[in-house]
Amino acid sequence: MNWLRTFKISILDRYIISKFLGTFFFALLMIIVITVVFDISEKIDDFIEKKAPLQAIVFDYYLNFVPYFVSLFSSLFIFISVIFFTSKLAAQTEIIAILSSGISFRRFLYPYFIGACILACFSFVINDVIMPSANKNRLDFEDKYLKNPVIYLERNVHKQVEPGLFVYLESFSNSSETAYQFSMERYKDDRMVSKLMSQNAQWNKEKEKWTIKDYYIRDIDSLGHETLSSGAGIDTTINLHPSEFKRRANFTETMSIAELNEFIDHLRMQGADNVKAFLIELHKRIAFPFSTFILTLIGASLSTRKVRGGIGIHVAIGIAISFLYILFMQFSAEFATKGNLDPIVAAWIPNIIFGIVSAFLYRLAPK
C-alpha cells in the first residue's frame, strides 16, 4: 500500500494544481477578452451594414466564438501556463526546497499530470460535446451577416448516393437549388439496369424531393433488351441533399466524432476522393487531448531549472515549441492529404515526436 501513500494528494499537490489550473483559465480569459475586443473592432462595419441584431451578435456569435477559440488554442495556453507558473516557482527557489525535502522529481510531477488530466478531459468535452453545436450557430451567423453566399464551382460531379445508384450532374446552382444535365444510373450485380437522363433536377423544399424535368429513362432487362420512356416531370427521393453543395471548407467543425464517423462512411459509399482529409480530422480529435500530457511534461521539465534570463526565457522557449508542435501538425496533415502518409500516423506523429522530446528533457531536468 506504499504506492497509495506516495500518490495521495497532499497540500503541495493541491497548491500546484490550483496554480496550474488558475494560471491556465486566467490566461485564457484575458486572451479571449482581448481577442473579442479586436474582433468587434474589425467586424463592426459588417454588423452595421448587415443590420445584425445585438442579441444575435452576443449570443449567436460571440458566445459561440469562445468554445471555438478555447479548442483552437488550448494546447498553447496549457503549455505557456505550465512554463509560467513553474518558472515562477523556480525563480523563488520553491522547487529547490521541494526537491531538497526528499520529494523525487517524478513525484513532484504528479500534480502536473492531475491538472493535465483535468484539462485533457475539458478539451475533449469542448471539442466533441460543446464545440459542434456552438460552431453551427457561429457559422450560421457568419453565413447570414458576414460572408457571401456559397457558390458551388465544381463541375462534372459523379457520385454514388446509395449502393448501386450513381448520379451525375454537370453543374449545380445554389441559388435555385438546381442540378443541370442530370443523370442517374442504377446497377445490379455490376450491370446497369436503368439510366435516367434529364436537362435538370430541382429541389422541392415542400415535398423534400427532387423534381426531374424533361427526362428520358432507359431500362435494360437481363437479356440486354432496352425499353425507353420519357416525360415532362417526375418527383424522386434519393440520398442527396442540396446542403451537400453549400458546405464551406470548415463545415466539419459542426460535427461530433460520431457524426464525423458517419460522414466518412457516407463519403466512402459515394466513392469520394477526399476521404483522407476527414480521416485526419477524426484522428486529430482523438490525438489532440493526449498532447496535453506531453506539453505539460515538456513545460515542467524545461522550467524547473532557474536560469539567468528568468521567466522570459522560459516563456519564449515555450512559445517556440508550441508553434513547432502546431507546425508539425499542419505538415503531417498536408503529407497525408497529398501524399501516401496514413491519416492515423499523420494525426499522431506530432505526439510521437514531441513525446520523445519530452522524455529527453525529463532526463535533463534537475532531480
Describe the structure.
The protein is α+β, with helices and mostly antiparallel strands. The chain has two domains: 7-147 and 279-364, no CATH class; 157-240, no CATH class. Helices cover 60% and strands 17% of the residues. The protein has helices at 2-6, 11-49, 54-91, 94-100, 105-108, 110-146, 257-270, 275-287, 291-303, 311-338, 343-364, and strands spanning 157-162, 165-169, 171-173, 178-188, 191-204, 209-220, 226-236. Strands 1, 2, 3, 4, 5, 6 and 7 form a seven-stranded antiparallel sheet that branches. α3 crosses α9 (291-303), α6 (110-146) crosses α9 (291-303) and α9 (291-303) runs parallel beside α11. The longest helix is centred in the N-terminal third of the chain and has 39 residues, at 11-49. The protein is elongated, with a radius of gyration of 28 Å. The mean pLDDT is 83.
